[in-house]
Known about the structure:
434 Repressor (Amino-terminal Domain), mainly alpha, 60% helix
Amino acid sequence: MDKKNYTIKDIARMAGVSAGTVDRVMHNRGEVSEATLKKVQKVLKEIDYHPNMFAIGLAAKKGIR
């Protein structure tokens, strides 16, 4: 089975929240209501979301020159 690469925007649309809210939930920063947290977590579980380690590594190196 092919696994779709979901973006933060995709997850936000599925959960009915903003992309910023998804970012706050995924990176555990800022305040998010319990109801919103549960909505986003439910979508993440449904799509079996796992962070892309390659993308994280690229983002970490982006600021280094």
